[in-house]
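Sample 3 of the quickstart, ligand S-adenosylmethionine:
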Amino acid sequence: MDIDTLRSRWDTFAPVFADRYERYTRTLANTLASAAELENAASVLDLGCGAGGGGLEIHRYLRQDARLTCVDLSPEMLRIARSRLPEDVVVQEENAEKLSFPSATFDAVISNLCLMIVPDTDAALGEIRRVLRPGGVLAASVWGAPERSPMMTFVPGLAREMGLEMPAPPRSNFHLAGTFRDRLLAAGFENVVIGEQDMVMVVRSGAQWARDVLEASPGISGWLQTLAPEDAERFRQRAISKADAMLARGESIKLCAEWALAW
Ligand SMILES: C[S@@+](CC[C@H](N)C(=O)[O-])C[C@H]1O[C@@H](n2cnc3c(N)ncnc32)[C@H](O)[C@@H]1O
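Result:
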């Protein structure tokens, strides 16, 4: 996907993301901030900061004299982030593939659920290496094992089951699952520790899940609008019962995130 299309998709998604999804991503931001041992850092970059919820978490881990810079591709995400982050946090538009910062600017880079979306992942990893000071660390998460991530596979899986056509993205966001460590080593990091963390949707019913996913996510609600109204309704009903059945079996609707600490 080209960078302008990507930017405008995240601009459209920004208010819903901040309202419904960030409560989940913030749990992962905490893991990354803790893993990066930010008490040793004077300068920290949050790359792909979204609406700033992760930045608020990271900020709690910082020394008083440390400087946090939050960057993202989407101006709408950044507008929300600016309205929520403390004044001393720098918020600016950047493309991860070509950062404007001088080399060796940051002691730590945190990037939560962004690198699997960036079109040229290797360019972004090269830029992260470049802006890190010698001895600096990267703590980053990406989509992990698809078979343990029903939060992301539920809708396309059900569409397939029901014989409904859903346009596949040009590249799956699972493309770094299981290969993230190798990509980081190939980018020049010498040490990579890998972890996993489930990001669980806290929904109490299939109907609540449908409100948060089928109706709120622009990609999915837009796709439903392209279907014949009776197919869209049939899909909605099947999805709600399937989500209810999962919840009744005690299965969570979650994303298994793979995260890495690299230096
Ligand atoms: C899933 S959101 C995660 C946001 C935030 N890190 C969080 O955890 O709440 C992914 C973010 O990556 C940003 N993004 C995608 N491609 C990017 C790029 N090339 N450069 C900078 N940010 C990018 C999107 O705009 C979006 O805000």
